[in-house]
Specification:
heterodimer; A: 386 residues; Butyryl-Coa Dehydrogenase, subunit A, domain 1; Butyryl-CoA Dehydrogenase, subunit A, domain 2; Butyryl-CoA Dehydrogenase, subunit A, domain 3; 3 domains; four-stranded mixed β-sheet; 11 helices; 10 strands; 18% strand; globular; B: 250 residues; alpha/beta; Rossmann fold; nine-stranded mixed β-sheet; two-stranded antiparallel sheet; 11 strands; binds flavin-adenine dinucleotide
C-alpha cells in the first residue's frame, strides 16, 4: 500500500504494527489450534491496548474514545485484518451503535465498553433469519413497563463471553405502502438476566479462536429503559452505522491480502524448482501481478468509501462495492498463495492455510456477496422504478 | 537536567537493502525508512530519565534533509519534548555530524547527550566518540546501563571481556548498546500531541560549521552470496573439515 498518509497516520501505523508483531503474531498459531484465546492472554492484550490508547480508538473523544476519523480507522482495520480476530478483537472497537445510548445507558453500557470493563455483542442473525433479517422470529411483547423477549440468535461473535447483547426483536407490525413490515426494536440485555442463556456455538473453520455464541431468550423480561434508541427504530439505528461495518470488512480483507501477498512474493523469490526461483516462471509471477493489482484496486475502493464517510457522503453502494470486491479479492489472493506455496501451503507449519480459511468468512458476514450485489443493483434500478 | 538525543533516519531494519545497478550507492527508491534502532534506544533512555524525574527536558536532534523531520516527529511521539533539525542535503560523514552536534550542544548546553553506538546503515561507530572529544565531555560508549548519581553518571559498558562500569562527570556523552532498554511504541495520544511540539530548523552555517567531505564512496556492492552449508556425520568429520577444507584450525 503506498497511498499518501499523514504524519500522524504514519506514526500510528508504525506503532500499531510494532504492537501487533509483539503482542499478537506470536500467539496466532497456538490460539487457532486451541480454538480459543486464554483469558489471561486476552486480558493482557486488552491492557496493553488501553495503555497505548488503541482501545476504542473508533469512538469519539467526548465519550473517552480515541476519536479517529474514518480514514484513519480504515488504516487501523486494515492492519487488524492481518491478524487473527480472536486476538485482534481484544483491541476492541466497540460498535458505534452504542452511541445511541441515552441517560443511564451511557454509564451502564457505552462507557464501560470504552474503558474495557464490558464487552458487547451484536445480536441480529437467527437460524431462520440470516440474509433475510425481516423474517426474524425473536419477539418482544410489551407488558406494562416491561418487554418479554422470546426467541433465539446464533452466530453472535465476540472475542470473549459478552457482558450484554444488543438484541434485535420484533415489537409489532407496521402497514407500509409495500405491505406489512415488522417493527424491529433494539434492546440492551445483560448476561445473567433471567431467561437469557448464552451458549458456545459450533466450531467455525474460519477465525477459529473468534467464538460464536447462541443466545436464547425464554420469557426474558427487560424494562423499557433497556430499549436502545427508539421503539420500532431498531433497523434504522443499525443501518446508520452498519454500512461502516462493511467498509471495515473491506479494509480487513485488504490487510489480509497484503500479508498473503508478502508471504507469496517472498516464497516465489526464494523457493527454487527446475534450478530457478519459481517466481521466474510466468505461471507464478503473473499470479503475483494479478494479486497486487487487485489488492490496489480494493484498497482504493476502500479508502474512497472512508473518505466519503469522513465527508458525510458515503452511499450504501460505496460500502457494498468495497466489501464485495475486497472480500472476493482476498479469497482469490489466498487461493493463489496456497498454490504458489504448493504442498507447504496446506501445512499447519505455515500460516498460509490458516489465512486461507480465515479469509473465507469475509464473503459471508456483514452481508454476503450476493446481498452486497443486491444493494448495488437496487441503487441502480430503484431510481428507475424497477 | 537537559538531555539531547541524536536520531538518524536510516533504512528500516526489516528491509532487504539492494545496491543500485551502477554500484554508486544503496538503492533508496521506495524503501521504508525509520529511526536507527540504536537511536530509538537512546530516545527511550532519555524519556525514562524524564519519567523518573531526573531529566527536565528531552530534545531530539536529527541532521539531514526535510525527510528526517519524520524521525524527529517519531521521537516527539515517543516522549521527547522538542526537536531540532539541522538541515543539509549532503551525505554527511561522522566528523561533520559530530561538529554539527557540537554546535547544537553549544547552543543548548545539555547535561547529557545520548546517541546510538552506531547506525545500521554506515555502521561507523564514530560519532559519539568524536562528539565527546570535540565538546571536551567524558564519554561512556556501548552502554547497557545508565545511572545518574548526583552530578556523576555511572555507565555500564559492554566490552569484549564482559561489563565495565565507568563513572563520568556531567555533562557527558553516552552511546547506547542493544541491551540498554527495550524501546516502547508511541501511544495514540502521544502521536496526536507530537504535531504540536516545537521543531526548530538550523542550517550548518547557523552552527558555524562548514559541511565538507573527506571520504569518497568508490562503489557499493552486495555481499557475496553464501554457499549452502553441509551436514557433517560426526565430530571427527567436523574436525577434519575445519582442518583440511576450511583451514581454520590446525
Ligand atoms: C463467524 C461468524 C460470525 C458472525 N457474527 C455475527 C454477529 O456477531 N452478529 C450477527 O448478528 N450475525 C453474525 N453472523 C451472521 C452473518 O451475518 C450471517 O451468517 C450472514 O448474514 C449470512 O446469513 P446466513 O448464514 O443465515 O446465510 P443465508 O442468509 O441462509 O444465505 C445462504 C446463501 O443464500 C444466499 N442468499 C440469500 N438470500 C439471497 C438473495 N435474496 N439473493 C441471492 N442470494 C441470496 C446468500 O448469499 C448465501 O450465499 C456471523 C456469522 C459467522 C459465520
Ligand atoms: C497432502 C499431500 C499429500 C502428498 N502425498 C504425496 C505422496 O504420497 N507421494 C509423493 O511423492 N508426494 C506427495 N505429495 C507431494 C505433492 O505431489 C507435491 O506437493 C506437488 O508435486 C507440488 O510440489 P511442491 O509442494 O514441492 O510445490 P513446488 O513444486 O515448490 O511448487 C510451488 C509452486 O510453483 C509452481 N511451479 C513450479 N515449477 C513451475 C514451473 N516450471 N512453471 C510454472 N510454475 C511452476 C507450482 O505449480 C506451484 O504453484 C503430497 C502433497 C500433499 C500436500
Amino acid at each position: 500500500m503506498n497511498f499518501p498518509v499523514t504524519e500522524e497516520q504514519r506514526m500510528f501505523l508504525d506503532s500499531l504494527r510494532g504492537f501487533l508483531e509483539k503482542e499478537i503474531y506470536p500467539h496466532e498459531a497456538e490460539t487457532d489450534r486451541a480454538g480459543e484465546v486464554p483469558e489471561e492472554l486476552g486480558e493482557h492484550i486488552k491492557r496493553r491496548a488501553i495503555e497505548m490508547g488503541f482501545y476504542a480508538a473508533n469512538l469519539p473523544e467526548s465519550v473517552g474514545g480515541g476519536g479517529l476519523d474514518y480514514t484513519t480507522m480504515g488504516l487501523f482495520e486494515r492492519e487488524l485484518g492481518k491478524v487473527s480476530y480472536g486476538l485482534g478483537g481484544h483491541l476492541a472497537r466497540p460498535t458505534e451503535i452504542l452511541l445511541a445510548c441515552e441517560g443511564d445507558q451511557v454509564d451502564g453500557y457505552l462507557k464501560p465498553c470504552v474503558t474495557g470493563e464490558k464487552h458487547e455483542s451484536f445480536a441480529l442473525t437467527e437460524p431462520g433469519a440470516g440474509s433475510d433479517i425481516m423474517s426474524m422470529s425473536t419477539k418482544a411483547v410489551a407488558d406494562g413497563d416491561d418487554y418479554v423477549i422470546n426467541g433465539m440468535k446464533h452466530f453472535i461473535s465476540t472475542p470473549c463471553v459478552p457482558d450484554f447483547a444488543i438484541v434485535f426483536a420484533a415489537t409489532g407490525v407496521d402497514d407500509t405502502p409495500r405491505g406489512p413490515r415488522k417493527r424491529v426494536t433494539a434492546f440492551l440485555v445483560d448476561r445473567g438476566e433471567k431467561g437469557f442463556t448464552i451458549q458456545r456455538g459450533p466450531t467455525c473453520a474460519a477465525q477459529r479462536a473468534y467464538r460464536t455464541y447462541e443466545l436464547s431468550f425464554d420469557d426474558c423480561r427487560v424494562n423499557r429503559r433497556q430499549i436502545l434508541g427508539e421503539e420500532g427504530k431498531g433497523l434504522e439505528l443499525s443501518d446508520k452505522w452498519l454500512g461502516m461495518g462493511r467498509v471495515w470488512v473491506a479494509a480487513q480483507s485488504c490487510g489480509k491480502a497484503e500479508r498473503l501477498l508478502e508471504l507469496a512474493t517472498d516464497w516465489a523469490a526464494t523457493r527454487k524448482q527446475f534450478g530457478k526461483p519459481i517466481g521466474s516462471f510466468q505461471g507464478t509471477s503473473f499470479k503475483l501481478a494479478d494479486m497486487a493489482t487487485e489488492l490496489q484496486a480494493a484498497d482504493l475502493m476502500t479508502m474512497h468509501a472512508c473518505r466519503q464517510a469522513d465527508n458525510g457522503l458515503m452511499r450504501p453502494e460505496d460500502a457494498a462495492m468495497a466489501k464485495l470486491y475486497a472480500s472476493e479479492m482476498v479469497g482469490r489472493v489466498a487461493d493463489h498463495t496456497v498454490q504458489i506455496f504448493g504442498g507447504m501451503g496446506l501445512m499447519e507449519e505455515m500460516p498460509i492455510e490458516r489465512l486461507w480459511r480465515d479469509a473465507r468468512i469475509e464473503r459471508i458476514w456483514d452481508g454476503t456477496s450476493e446481498i452486497q450485489r443486491h444493494i448495488i443493483a437496487r441503487s441502480l434500478l430503484r431510481p428507475l422504478g424497477a | 537536567m537537559k538531555v539531547l538525543v541524536a536520531v538518524k533516519r536510516v533504512v528500516d531494519y526489516n528491509v532487504k537493502v539492494r545496491a543500485k545497478a551502477d554500484g554508486s550507492d544503496v538503492d533508496l527508491n521506495n524503501v521504508k525508512m525509520a529511526i536507527n534502532p540504536f537511536c530509538e534506544i537512546a530516545v527511550e533512555e532519555a524519556v525514562r530519565l524524564k519519567e523518573a524525574g531526573t531529566a527536565t527536558e528531552v530534545i531530539a536532534v536529527s541532521i539531514g534533509d526535510k525527510a528526517c523531520q519524520e524521525q524527529i516527529r517519531t521521537a516527539l511521539a515517543l516522549g521527547a519534548d522538542r526537536g531540532i533539525q539541522v538541515e543539509t542535503e549532503s551525505n554527511v560523514e561522522p566528523l561533520v555530524v559530530a561538529k554539527l552536534l557540537k554546535g547544537v550542544v553549544d547552543k543548548e548546553q545539555p547535561q547529557l547527550v545520548i546517541l546510538g553506538k552506531q547506525s545500521i546503515d554506515g555502521d561507523n561507530n564514530q560519532t559519539g566518540q568524536m562528539l565527546g572529544a570535540l565538546a571536551n565531555m567524558p564519554q561512556g560508549t556501548f552502554a547497557s546501563e545508565v545511572v545518574v548519581d548526583g552530578d556523576k553518571l555511572n555507565v555500564t559498558r559492554e566490552v569484549d571481556g564482559g561489563l565495565q562500569t565507568v563513572s563520568l562527570n556531567l555533562p557527558a556523552v553516552v552511546t547506547t548498546d542493544l541491551r540498554l532498554n527495550e524501546p516502547r511504541y508511541a501511544s495514540l495520544p502521544n502521536i496526536m500531541k507530537a504535531k504540536k511540539k516545537q521543531l526548530d530548523v538550523y542550517s550548518p552555517a547557523d552552527l558555524g560549521v562548514e559541511v565538507t567531505s573527506h571520504l569518497t564512496q568508490v562503489s557499493v556492492e552486495p555481499p557475496a552470496e553464501r554457499q549452502a552449508g553441509i551436514k557433517v556425520e560426526d565430530v571427527d568429520q567436523l574436525v577434519d573439515k575445519l582442518k583440511n577444507e576450511a583451514k581454520v584450525i590446525s
